[in-house]
Design a protein that fits this description.
15% strand, oxidoreductase, NrdD, oxidoreductase activity, EC 1.1.98.6
Length: 52
């Protein structure tokens, strides 16, 4: 099933740039794409919050 968003993204594929997501792991930053499958799953389950 194609959604409107998927259709728009496919139409403008040549204009898109790759975005790397970094996270802080044990005191340094690492790109999420370099994680193994288990670590990627843990990253998706993290809760985001704003400290007041």
């Amino acid at each position: 099933m194609k959604t409107k968003t998927n259709t728009v993204l496919e139409q403008h594929q040549e204009l898109r740039t790759k975005c790397l997501v970094y996270t802080r792991v044990m005191g340094y930053h690492r790109p999420v794409e370099s994680f193994n499958i288990g670590k990627k799953g843990e990253h998706k389950q993290r809760l985001h919050f704003k400290e007041s």
